[in-house]
Specification:
By secondary structure, the chain is α/β, with parallel strands linked by helices. The protein contains eight helices and seven strands, in the order βαααααβαβββαβαβ.
Amino acid sequence: MKLALFDFDGTITTHDSYRDFLLFVAGKLRFAMLIMRLSPWLIAWLTGLADNQSVKQKTTAMFIGGMRRERFDELARAFVKQKLGAIVRPAALEKIRWHKNQGHRVIVVSASFTDYLKFWCAEHELEVLSTRLEEIDGCLTGRFATPNCFGPEKVRRIRELLCLEDYETIYAYGDSRGDREMLEIAHEKGYRVF
């Protein structure tokens, strides 16, 4: 058996889909207003004073905290249909198709939210391991139900799902420091290349 692991943002896509998704959900004016309110946190992250997970958590809570699941899913489906395809790299889709045609198991492993990636992955018949949002009584809290699927967490989640020793060859594709640990477990590594 062979396994192919793909990061999503910056690897399958040309840039971060999280930002695009928040812009789609909020609209330009509300997005700008919320980013201004978040600017101290964003500056802290850019200067290394705050970690990726805490800033992403704060941002997510501000943008979607309190949103009904039905409304979120409606927006997520629309985002996938209307916007996401425009930032997907043709070379990434070609490589995914090649792996699938070879009979390899293909999994998208991403810090982006399962809650919208699942629609894109279902369309392409791919498995997904990613950050999940907390939901209580049909309402998204804006908090994470799982740790942010970034860096070492990617490997922890992969190992939670799979016995890596069952795979004779593991391919991994990534583009950033958040993918380093995932690339380290692979026999064949694609860093910013397919």
